[in-house]
């Protein structure tokens, strides 16, 4: 068979096997209760028990046409067989990774042990010939890995395996993204006359497309770790194989771009868990698809949005392959801008800021001061008889607790004005500007107010709701009020509220 005929045959054989095998796997899984229980997962979004063994069908559908090439005479088969060490590594390593995923799906494996097993498979792949010896970068040239080649190779394989595993959290997402990567790799392989990458991409693309028929929302079967880890391994190793055939330089830029979305999600997840002081491989609901769902998008709309982003990355990868150094640099800049836009759109920066604030210690310097002095001042407030004494006690409180200012506001209609204020004379605002603002409601009442007080166009007095609140400001290295400080100041504000209500201060 000619090369294009072999690619087409491999694609349709994989597609047909996948379409026929997936329902069989699904029915057997239901019969033997091999189901994904949503009550046992912290990141699942489905509400019913669904088989998660679809990866078995993907694996078999992918392998069948490739194994057949060892027994059929063809140009592609000859190339595949002549590289038997790497071919065996691709197939055997894929099966082993798939089995690791299957055991995890059925019985569960601790993240650390799973990472160790993945690393052992990656080491095996490195020994069998999959190596990152150098990287070609635009405007920089070739960067040799030297003694770091084994480490970089292992990190690449294990990283892509887990990247695909992390994005597998919504119907049709992981399979769809992997399919677009297969299309990109096929274009890359066909343009460079690389039969291996074309063959692997065609076989995996067919298996994924057949699986997507049953996995697109509403899914009747999931790929599970069996499928996501297997797909990640095949994409990682086949990309290396394709790059090495291009010359002495391992041009990882193209697979990195084409896998941009899962790689981006993985790095964000690792950073998020790091700042939250959580295990790097612990599951959560902060992935990009979770963020889109939280914004109100349906599963289908979320998948379509992420498909679109993945296609943009795929086009960027293809453009990078055919462009010169300047064009590649421009493409990377555009993709970087798109990436920043995506992270901002899903609220990633706000989430990181939120996580950073809560990753700090619960006890802050000011929380300790509030906790120490609060009992003393709660007692002092009980003996206050007039506003002058109130001002004196408040001034003493903010000095001892190192607060910059305390201010009481009243809001009537649309008008808000300060009715009481004390500042700390020991606070040098030119050197240390207040960065923390804590505001608490202290009183709400109804009162007739005139036109001037309301700031609205009325002809006579009217009964409106008046709100009174107190605001504390101080300097801190933290990014927000600690939970303990908020609780302590709320207790103080409640005491002040009772005092103002009993004395009738600031109400008229």
Q: What is the structural class? A: alpha+beta
**Largest beta-sheet details:** 4 strands, antiparallel
Shape: elongated
Low-confidence segments, given as residue ranges, are: 246-250
Q: What does this protein structure show overall?
A:
The chain has 508 residues and is of the alpha+beta class. The protein folds into two domains: 3-258, no CATH class; 365-503, Beta-Lactamase, CATH 3.30.450. It has 19 helices and eight strands. The chain has helices spanning 3-31, 54-69, 75-82, 84-106, 111-127, 149-167, 173-191, 195-215, 224-244, 253-258, 260-275, 288-294, 299-322, 325-345, 348-359, 365-382, 387-400, 451-454, 483-503, and strands spanning 35-36, 50-51, 134-137, 141-144, 405-412, 415-423, 436-449, 462-474. Strands 6-5-8-7 form a four-stranded antiparallel beta sheet. The protein has a two-stranded antiparallel sheet with strand order 1-2. Strand 3 and strand 4 (141-144) form a beta hairpin. Helix 2 runs antiparallel to helix 8 (195-215) and helix 7 packs parallel to helix 13 (299-322). The chain starts with a helix and ends in a 5-residue tail after the last helix.
What does the secondary structure layout of this molecule look like, with pairings?
Elements: H1 3-31, E1 35-36, E2 50-51, H2 54-69, H3 75-82, H4 84-106, H5 111-127, E3 134-137, E4 141-144, H6 149-167, H7 173-191, H8 195-215, H9 224-244, H10 253-258, H11 260-275, H12 288-294, H13 299-322, H14 325-345, H15 348-359, H16 365-382, H17 387-400, E5 405-412, E6 415-423, E7 436-449, H18 451-454, E8 462-474, H19 483-503
Antiparallel strand pairs: 1-2, 3-4, 5-6, 5-8, 7-8
Helix pairs in contact: 1-2, 1-8, 2-4, 2-8, 2-9, 4-5, 4-9, 5-6, 6-9, 6-11, 7-8, 7-9, 7-13, 8-9, 13-14, 16-17, 16-19
